[in-house]
Amino acid sequence: MDTTLKNNLEYTLFSWGKQAGLNPINAVKAKGSYVFDKDGKEYLDFSSQLMNVNIGHGDQRITEAVTKQMKDFAYVYPGMATDVRGLLGKKLAEITPGNLTKSFFTLGGAEAVENAIKLSRIYTKRHKIIGHYRSYHGATYAAMAVGGDPRKFAIDSQGAGNFVHVENPYFYRCPWNSTSFEECGERAFANLERIVKFENPDAIAAILLEGESGSSGCIKYPPMYLAKVRALCDQYGILLIIDETMSGFGRTGKMFGVDHHNVTPDIMCMAKGLTSGYLPLGAMTITDTIAAAFNDKPMALGLTYSAHAVSCAAALENLKIIEEESLVEKAEKMGIYIEEQVEKLKEKHPSIGDFRNTGLLGCIELVKNRETKEPITPWNAPADQMQITNEMAKKIRDLGMFTFVRWNWIFIAPPLNVSKEDVDKGLNIISEAILIADKHFY
Ligand SMILES: Cc1ncc(COP(=O)(O)O)c(C=O)c1O
Predict the structure, then answer these.
(1) What is the residue-level pLDDT of the chain in tens, covering all 442 positions?
(2) Are residues 235 and 120 in the same domain?
(3) Atom of ligand 1 nearest to the CA of 110
């Protein structure tokens, strides 16, 4: 076996799955929308890795910004002021909606969520947090507990407490059998409102939702859903925390997912596209109202690597690139093109039950039967029911592409500057993979 692979497999642990029998791509280089392996094989990156490499790979402007910062200094403790930290905070205050003003910097999304949960409890002096079942907010204890992703089952018995869940407004499989997208939104909201009352509004610190659903199946918010949640929060003094870790920084064709809904949260969490993955960084940005509450009392949050100067330098350069190259607008336009193309794929592939997309965050949902909507692979399927999904994932890899294939969803989330040629190529590869499901079930 190749030494790199051998070292990786023998001395390191890989996320989430069983460790035996792994065959990871042996990456040596990445440029634009492509990752190259040790044998020179190229992989079109159709999910921007973990939906984070928003500006594409290998941009040397980031290398230069990072190197410049490192030449001055790499690290000072978070009690010191630095140029890049101040400029990044100011930039985030400018691009986030409403009166979101002050940022606390973390290392990634889960830490941003973790600190948002803590701060909302400290600020409101309440303890419960409500989240969606179909959501993921990171792998630390509280972030896992507020999400509903089944990856949390392994640690559920010791999970963080006082988290309550509600069903999403998932129109394709609306839990309230709604006949329209709007109706599903209204019923989901009515359900949320009832649960808020049952749980005692005075005990609820926050409702914590994704800015736009990602790894739980790209479930779109019906019109007015988030606006109504905002009003419900205001009615009861509950904070609205929006997690833009995946949906932020142009991913959905707007700077943030909430920008589609004209909603300003009290706390916004972000990571991933903040640096496009060039270095680890997350942020929790709070309104000036919440910030003011800590003017005269201590804010009990801290991390050794908060506001790491090199990560801040990467983020600043990344945001400059996103703006200067109009990547948010490009994502919106390319998203519309992808939606048109997937419409055509629907005619060709009976397995496609639904396609949900916003900008460049999309999921194709595959079914055994369009009438019954039975998924080709069930949610949280055990290994022995993953055969078709695994075959499709293998096909995609064999054909030179990397993207997420999870149960009955295939993700389409390329870098925001992906070319039309690469989109066409990626969709052709996905079409080849879906043929496997078509042949099996039709
Ligand atoms: C919405 C959302 N929140 C939080 C996270 C966790 O981020 P991280 O893995 O950087 O901790 C993710 C990761 O996929 C995410 O999609």
Answers:
(1) 899 999 999 999 999 999 999 999 999 999 999 999 999 999 999 999 999 999 999 999 999 999 999 999 999 999 999 999 999 999 999 999 999 999 999 999 999 999 999 999 999 999 999 999 999 999 999 999 999 999 999 998 888 999 999 999 999 999 999 999 999 999 999 999 999 999 999 999 999 999 999 999 999 999 999 999 999 999 999 999 999 999 999 999 999 999 999 999 999 999 999 999 999 999 999 999 999 999 999 999 999 999 999 999 999 999 999 999 999 999 999 999 999 999 999 999 999 999 999 999 999 999 999 999 999 999 999 999 999 999 999 999 999 999 999 999 999 999 999 999 999 999 999 999 999 999 999 9
(2) yes
(3) 11
Residue 426 Cα to ligand 1 middle (Å): 24
Place of tokens 């359900």: 191
DSSP 349-372: -TTEEEEEEETTEEEEEEBS-TTT
95 with 204, same domain?
A: yes
Ligand 1 contact via 137 beta carbon (within 6 Å): yes
This prediction's pTM? 0.98
- Which of 53, 137, 251, 276 to mutate for ligand 1's pocket (most ligand atoms within 8 Å of CB)? 137
* Sign of the C-alpha dihedral computed for residues 99, 103, 104 and 109 taken in this order: positive
Domain closes at, from 298, 324, 350? 324
Number of structural domains found in the chain: 2
Task: Report CA(440)–ligand 1 centroid distance (Å).
Answer: 34
What is the position in ligand 1's atom list of the atom closest to the CA of 215?
Answer: 16
Q: What is the CATH number of the domain that holds 399?
A: 3.90.1150.10
At 132, give phi and psi (nearest 5°): -85, 145
Ligand 1 pocket member 218 (CB < 6 A): no
Domain final residue pick, 279, 304, 324 = 324
Phi, psi of 344 (to 5 degrees): -65, -40
Task: Return the beta strands (E) in 72-156 as ranges.
Answer: 100-106, 128-132
